[in-house]
Amino acid sequence: MPDGISLLANHYVPEGQEKPLPVVLIRVPYGRSGLYAQMFAAPLARRGFQVFMQATRGTFGSGGQFRPFTTEREDGLATLAWLREQAWCDGRIAMTGGSYFGHTQWAVAPYADPPLVCVSPHITSSEVTGTLFYNHGAPQIHTGLTWSSSIGRQERGGLPDPRMRGRVHAALQRLPLQAVDVAVAGAPVPFWRDFVAHSEPGDKFWSEANHNEADFSRMPPVSMVTGWWDLFLAGTMTDYTALRAAGVPARIVVGPWLHGEPGELRMVAKTDLAWLDHHLRGGPPPEDAAPVRVFLQQADRWLAFGEWPPLQAKEQSFHLGKDGGLAAEPEASAAPGTFTYDPADPTPTVGGPLLQPPGKQADNAVVERRADVLVFTGPALTADLDLVGQVKAQIYVRTELPHADVFVRLCDVDPKGVSRNIVDGIRRLDPRTVPADDVTEVADGVLAVDVELFPTAYRVKAGHRVRVQVSGGAFPRYARNMGTAEPFGTATQGRTNRFEVFHDADHPSRVVLPVLSAAEGSEVGKPASQSSS
């Protein structure tokens, strides 16, 4: 590296290689040997690709300190330059990998000169602070501490600790959160300390971690795989749309997967082999004609589209109504719903997109019984309702304190009354960032809050009902809102916060769903064999 630090790598060379070949570069913080090598490098090497799997700075023998997301551009570009100087490299370099491996691609691909041949940044996104760390201002502490416990212990050896999930949950109950990394990792973890120290609006610490402002027109062809329950999903879909708008050849597959599920990893391997063979060895183009393939959940089918979001999907509003109902039009008049959020007893969450199981769908009864959750339910559907695209909400709310969270969740209620989550979203209100493009003051302290829920492809079956939850948090997925300006990592004292949620003609609170009409003719594929993965 330019600063004199040496990074180590494993180099896979096809047997009998006599001339320079292209290189598939994989940059990973989890070890260049062992499980990850067997999962990502070895399958490509067995197919005759030359693979260079590098341990990122400060991990598994590479020099320096591992400060995640902050050094990957400089180190990645230096690695590209070094590779091109080697006699066994013909100058053509591609990159692949998922999650953090995908981040290392975003840190390099828009800036590489000469450009990379192609990339495959799976289950990741170009912008990580809003996607992974602070979702619309709300710190994702469960993901942050789960990952910190993993990277803090990964080089100590031994078997995985089956009690770790419980330890993470217990640690997140503590206040302050600043040093709970020690409870799960046995020592301070630099990433966790950075995560809690640099969460305030306007903090520039993570500027090197985000690449969504890069010139996407300089990107090489891109192939991506992600899952509807993957925590990077929203950012991945945003990246795909931006890449296509910049004229970049891009493809994406979205399945019914949580982050790193076996089905997701199998799809990564399958698409990578075809993608690299086409771009590095002149093989046939990928067999699927459409650039967008998505799994329609609860219908066990794959759909194919020419773009994302699909033009065939039309927006349909479900307005919050009086007596806990949902309606096509807002009520002429209705008293606001009220609840009090208490950080000493934070509103819990179940299911959803998490870094590790449990996640995905879950019975929401324990949440919906609480007094700090408003529930609005529509009538039984007379026909299947296929949701394909971006889900969003606008909630009119007035809070007693200016520091508050607005959490919205869309659910599918079956004929037995079981409510299961489909997608959700959160927006943290803070006087330092409000008003904003997505939060405007209407009158008398009432705010119109736009909440971006996750995108989805999901069938709500005939006979089921659509339900919307509105609450003031989702703990421990997100840090509890203490009702004060104190940073979340050092806060110990919280204040209760009374919410008023308005839903009348002057305050038409609603969710907006992307409804796909079968008559509009999306291309429908065969039933999916990996739907149970």
Automatic annotation (TrEMBL):
Looking up InterPro entries in the UniProt record yields: AB_hydrolase_fold, CocE/Ser_esterase, Galactose-bd-like_sf, Xaa-Pro-like_dom, Xaa-Pro_dipept_C, Xaa-Pro_dipeptidyl-ppase/CocE
Q: Which UniProt keywords apply?
A: Hydrolase
Database matches in Pfam families: Peptidase_S15 (PF02129), PepX_C (PF08530)
Report domain Xaa-Pro dipeptidyl-peptidase C-terminal positions: 273-512
Q: By its UniProt entry, which SUPFAM superfamilies does this protein fall under?
A: alpha/beta-Hydrolases (SSF53474), Galactose-binding domain-like (SSF49785)
What PANTHER family does this protein map onto? Answer: COCE_NOND FAMILY, PUTATIVE (AFU_ORTHOLOGUE AFUA_7G00600)-RELATED (PTHR43056:SF10), PEPTIDASE S9 PROLYL OLIGOPEPTIDASE (PTHR43056)
Provide the protein name: Peptidase S15
Originating organism: Winogradskya humida
